[in-house]
Amino acid sequence: MKIDIEGAEFDFMPSIKGYLEQEMPIVYLSLQAPFFDEKLREEKLQIIVDTMSMYDHCYNENLEEIDISSLTSGENQTSFCSFVFTN
Question: Is the whole-model pTM more than 0.70?
């Protein structure tokens, strides 16, 4: 499942959490935190961490496995980035 919805992912992903838990599709998710005020970015990214924490694996754009909690890092707050979630 590819999700690239220009900042709406922060509202959309929690709304499909039940589906994700039930079906566990592989998800390619683009995050656009820079669309938000700097003060809100970490909070918005934490929404993604909370929603996607059911997945066993999270990979960055280089397909390197990362800890999902690193999604809230400064680099991800200031750049447009993508991640893959899988079990």
Answer: yes
